[in-house]
Amino acid sequence: ADDKATLEMLAAIHDAATQIRLDAERAFLAVLDGSCRTPIGGLATLEGDTMHFRGIVLKPDGSAAHE
């Protein structure tokens, strides 16, 4: 959105820590070509200035997983 009113409304609900975690999770999925049809998941958490990340990739049939 380019209009000032919308940007101001979004700024009021924006959370920088959430954005950082979201960016990390999306980057993980993008690198592995993840989509809604691929069994890939990632979870980023922040503790102070430190990010922790857990990821998992599964075979489509669920018979094997790699964390």
Polypeptide structure, described:
The protein is an alpha+beta fold. Helices cover 39% and strands 28% of the residues. It has helices at residues 4-13, 16-31; strands at 40-47, 50-58, 65-66. The chain has a three-stranded antiparallel beta sheet with strand order 1-2-3. The chain is elongated, with a radius of gyration of 16 Å.
- The pLDDT mean sits at 92
For the largest beta sheet, what order do the strands appear in spatially?
1-2-3
Helix content: 25-40%
Write the H/E string, N to C. Answer: HHEEE
Task: Offer a few descriptive terms.
2 helices, 67 residues, three-stranded antiparallel β-sheet, elongated, alpha+beta, single chain
Write the layout of secondary structure elements.
Elements: H1 4-13, H2 16-31, E1 40-47, E2 50-58, E3 65-66
Antiparallel strand pairs: 1-2, 2-3
Give me a quick take on this structure.
The chain has 67 residues and is α+β, with helices and mostly antiparallel strands. The protein contains two helices and three strands; from the N terminus they run ααβββ.
